[in-house]
């Protein structure tokens, strides 16, 4: 018999069980059950592996913090499974050479998370295939598997993800071996990783939100508004969140890897949002978005040019995770909202109008003026960086807070904008030094909104900072040679901080005006406190702050008082007042039945300073304030038109009064920083008993055209003193020059894959030619964010720009666009579009 002519049978037991490369996670089928079928990584079955999303996914299990570049290749990739924890999902494996035999084979599914997965840390899960297990048998808080079907070489099963599972990318491996002790273990890597998200639809998840309308708005809505402008006339700035785009989840995963958050902490939403808040800002050369509030933006993108988050994520992924330039608070808040929604956390941007930036932790914003009434930048010692921002935006996330006592669940405030001291110290920092300790100073929140409302600032995290933003006292000091320390306090309209806190209303959508706004000031301040702030006047100036202004929007809900009891005790938790109280403070001045809360007592608390000379500054002597001053609210002023600033003065006494007053207007950045002086008026006059006088300052277009910056904010300041009574007072207010809206029209009936045409138009409102013009536009499922150059625009010219696009997905969509030029920018418009299949 010739060698090789006889085939010797091999026992089945000696044939190793091999898993075919076919391993399915049924991405689209599972997505319907998990409400993740809108994620483009699920829908796109033909993405280029060189796209930002695929590149980031391919490096998901590497040390992302060390990644400096990405290679581009051309290939294709199947859909990626995006799953919500707290729910089961289906998967299947196929054997290569023979059927699985449970008598001699061992088959296991192994899920791993992070660079060093461990079973004891919850980052490694091993689930054996038990062919007779047709139901889940483990506790709901544990991973589990049950067999769904075995047919030939194929085995399908259902895996339960517990509601406390780690959030992010999980690797899936299949292990095979035999029942023989010490037998070799073969491991087969599934082609795709799976994303596991938080689940606000699951009661066991910490981010559970028990309201379908709110889930639609704060989780599933991929467009919204961030409110900007002034408290007189807030405006909703439309934003495309793009949380379902093919770059959102990869960017979120990469940022979490760079944040320094231990992978074993990524199932805790408190720690996740805290880490994201720290890594969104990149002022140490390490993170997503670099902030800039003044100066030139030529080496990056002006913040007002962005139309949504996806382009920012795309820049970040394509450029080797280098920080994107530039952002400001409202952009930080919108981008954070995108990431949180992508990860499954209900979130929304909120805006506080007249927001305090308390840099020295005194819960007071101090401004110093010289004898001529000009503000002294930095104060007498040059180190005072306190500021009043016309508006400041942050992000709220919805979750329970098991780390706090009962009553502080719900909305939590997270501020991803770097604090001023961190921005100042960012120059020249080592980009690789940004670790868990280095970023600690950048973290702001999550702070329980309810704890802020109650004045309970001792709760984690960073609650005093947020409390100061909406409650700090504003104090003015002027040089005075008769004062032993060189300055006197000037009465100023009190409680102007935290004038209005706004967000978009659930279920509403308005592209023409802002009927979709929701006033949530009552969530941060008690109803009584808010109305008191709006009515109360300190000194003699009146303005909109002091004239009983009520919300132009929704009625605020009545809320309980700020003092709470520990469960089962009669001991009151220390409030902001208690924590910051100084030795001179006399509790008898504020009896318990006075109805004053911690927020009401801010002015008394802030009277304490760190020097011995502090107490005399806040002398409580009452002066004869018999001259009334009214700073007139500015009417709507269109960009390119002149405006008048007025102060009405009335002598209410029976005697003659000699008055010295000045009135000035400055162009300012929205952060309150003065850019340029626009005009000033100084007057001294004598008022007879009962008489009135009007002081006026007129600013023409020619005077402000080269001096107004960015968003067109104007700061008005007035100061006056009465010679006979030593009465003195000051007031400030701000308004914004109005710009035209960008009109958007769409031809025909948009349909998937069919060419559509959008027309963007507006009229140049200023008597100068606009140069370096460009249109930026974006729409989820309509067109990726892009910028197109445009010709110069003549004075008064009406222009129309037509752009072609091909819708990719059906349903209700939103197209957002901006127009910008060297002379005039931030012209914004949006249009809802219904796309047919």
In short:
By secondary structure, the chain is α+β, with helices and mostly antiparallel strands.
Q: Name the average pLDDT.
A: 81
- Main sheet summary: 6 strands, mixed
CA(first)-CA(last) distance: 70 Å
Any low-confidence stretches, pLDDT <50, length ≥5? 1-14, 45-77, 422-439, 529-540, 542-621
Beta-strand residue percentage? 25-35%
**SSE-based structural type:** alpha+beta
Shape: elongated
The number of helical runs is: 17
The helical percent reads 10-25%
Radius of gyration: 31 Å
Number of strands: 38
Write the layout of secondary structure elements.
Layout: E1 19-24, H1 27-34, H2 40-43, H3 52-58, E2 81-84, E3 88-95, E4 105-112, E5 124-128, E6 144-151, E7 154-160, E8 168-178, E9 186-189, E10 194-197, H4 212-220, E11 223-229, E12 234-240, H5 248-258, H6 269-280, E13 289-291, H7 310-318, E14 324-327, H8 329-342, E15 347-357, E16 364-369, E17 387-399, E18 410-414, H9 420-424, E19 447-448, H10 449-454, H11 463-471, E20 473-479, E21 487-490, E22 500-504, E23 517-519, H12 521-524, H13 527-535, E24 541-542, H14 576-580, H15 602-605, H16 614-617, E25 627-631, E26 643-651, E27 657-668, E28 674-687, E29 692-699, H17 701-704, E30 713-722, E31 728-736, E32 743-746, E33 756-763, E34 773-779, E35 783-790, E36 798-805, E37 811-820, E38 827-835
Parallel strand pairs: 2-10, 13-14, 16-20, 24-25
Antiparallel strand pairs: 1-3, 3-7, 4-5, 4-8, 6-7, 8-9, 8-10, 11-12, 15-17, 15-22, 17-18, 18-19, 20-21, 22-23, 25-26, 26-29, 27-28, 27-30, 30-31, 32-33, 33-36, 34-35, 34-37, 37-38
């Amino acid at each position: 018999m010739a060698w090789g002519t006889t085939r010797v049978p091999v026992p089945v037991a000696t044939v190793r069980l091999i898993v075919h490369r076919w391993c399915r996670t049924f991405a689209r089928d599972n997505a319907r059950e998990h409400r993740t079928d809108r994620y483009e990584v699920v829908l796109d079955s033909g993405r280029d592996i060189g796209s930002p999303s695929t590149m980031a996914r391919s490096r998901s299990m590497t040390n992302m913090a060390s990644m400096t570049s990405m290679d581009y290749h051309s290939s294709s990739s199947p859909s990626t499974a995006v799953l919500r924890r707290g729910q089961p999902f289906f998967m299947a494996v196929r054997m290569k050479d023979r059927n699985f035999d449970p008598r001699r084979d061992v088959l296991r599914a192994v899920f791993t998370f992070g660079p060093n997965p461990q079973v004891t840390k919850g980052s490694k899960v091993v689930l054996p295939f038990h062919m007779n297990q047709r139901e889940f048998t483990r506790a709901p808080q544990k991973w589990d598997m049950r067999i769904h079907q075995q047919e030939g070489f194929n085995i399908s099963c259902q895996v339960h993800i517990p509601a406390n599972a780690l959030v992010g990318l999980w690797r899936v491996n299949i292990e095979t071996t035999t029942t023989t002790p010490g037998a070799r273990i073969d491991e087969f890597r599934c082609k795709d990783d799976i994303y596991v998200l938080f689940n606000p639809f699951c009661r066991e998840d910490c981010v559970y939100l028990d309201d379908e309308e709110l889930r639609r708005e704060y989780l599933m809505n991929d467009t919204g508004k961030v409110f900007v402008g002034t408290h007189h006339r807030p405006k909703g700035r439309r934003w495309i969140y793009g949380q379902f785009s093919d770059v959102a989840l990869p960017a979120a995963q990469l940022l979490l890897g760079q944040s320094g958050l231990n992978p074993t902490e990524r199932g805790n939403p408190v720690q996740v949002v805290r880490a994201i808040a720290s890594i969104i800002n990149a002022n140490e050369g390490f993170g997503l978005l670099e902030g800039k509030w003044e100066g030139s933006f030529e080496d990056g993108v002006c913040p007002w040019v962005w139309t949504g988050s996806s382009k920012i994520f795309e820049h970040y992924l394509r450029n080797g995770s280098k920080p994107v330039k530039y952002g400001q608070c409202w952009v930080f808040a919108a981008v954070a909202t995108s990431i949180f929604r992508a990860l499954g956390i209900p979130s929304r941007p909120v805006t506080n109008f007249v927001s305090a930036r308390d840099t020295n932790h005194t819960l007071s914003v101090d401004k110093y003026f010289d004898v001529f009434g000009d503000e002294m930048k930095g104060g007498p010692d040059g180190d005072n960086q306190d500021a009043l921002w016309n508006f400041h935006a942050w992000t709220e996330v919805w979750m329970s807070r098991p780390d706090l006592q009962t009553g502080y669940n719900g909305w939590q405030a997270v501020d991803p904008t770097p604090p001023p001291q961190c921005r100042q110290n960012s120059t020249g920092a080592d980009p690789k030094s940004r670790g868990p300790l280095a970023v600690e100073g950048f973290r702001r929140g999550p702070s329980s909104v309810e704890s802020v409302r109650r004045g309970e600032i001792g709760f984690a995290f960073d609650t005093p900072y947020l409390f100061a933003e909406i409650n700090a006292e504003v104090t003015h000091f002027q040089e005075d040679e008769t004062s032993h320390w060189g300055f006197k306090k000037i009465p100023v309209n009190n409680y102007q901080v935290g004038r209005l806190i706004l967000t978009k209303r659930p279920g509403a959508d308005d592209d023409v005006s802002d009927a979709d706004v929701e006033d949530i000031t009552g969530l941060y301040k008690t109803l009584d406190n808010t109305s008191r702030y709006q009515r109360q006047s300190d000194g003699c100036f009146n303005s909109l702050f002091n004239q009983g202004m009520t919300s132009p929007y929704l009625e605020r809900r009545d809320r309980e008082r700020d003092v709470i009891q520990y469960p089962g005790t009669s001991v009151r938790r220390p409030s902001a007042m208690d924590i910051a109280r100084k030795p001179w403070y006399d509790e008898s001045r504020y009896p318990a039945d006075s109805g004053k809360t911690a927020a009401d007592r801010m002015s008394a608390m802030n009277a304490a300073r760190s020097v011995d000379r502090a107490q005399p500054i806040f002398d409580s002597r009452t002066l004869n304030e018999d001259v009334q001053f009214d700073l007139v609210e500015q009417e709507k002023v269109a960009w390119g038109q002149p405006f008048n600033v007025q102060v009405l003065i009335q002598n209410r006494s029976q005697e003659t009064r000699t008055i010295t007053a000045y009135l000035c207007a400055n162009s300012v950045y929205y952060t309150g920083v003065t850019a340029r002086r626009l005009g000033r008026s100084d007057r001294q006059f004598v008022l007879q008993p009962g008489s009135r006088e009007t002081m006026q300052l007129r600013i023409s277009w020619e005077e402000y055209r080269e001096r107004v910056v960015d968003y067109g904010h104007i700061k008005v300041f007035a100061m006056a003193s009465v010679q006979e009574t030593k009465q003195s007072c000051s007031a400030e207010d701000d308004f914004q020059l109005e710009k035209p809206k960008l009109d958007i029209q769409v031809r025909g009936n948009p349909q998937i894959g069919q060419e559509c045409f959008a027309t963007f138009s507006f009229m140049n409102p200023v008597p100068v030619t606009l140069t370096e013009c460009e249109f930026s536009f974006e729409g989820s499922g309509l067109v990726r964010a892009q910028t197109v150059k445009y010709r110069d625009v003549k004075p008064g010219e009406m222009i129309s720009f037509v752009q072609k696009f091909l819708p990719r997905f059906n349903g209700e969509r939103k197209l957002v666009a901006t127009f910008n030029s060297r002379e005039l920018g931030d012209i914004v418009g949006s249009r809802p579009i219904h796309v047919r299949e």
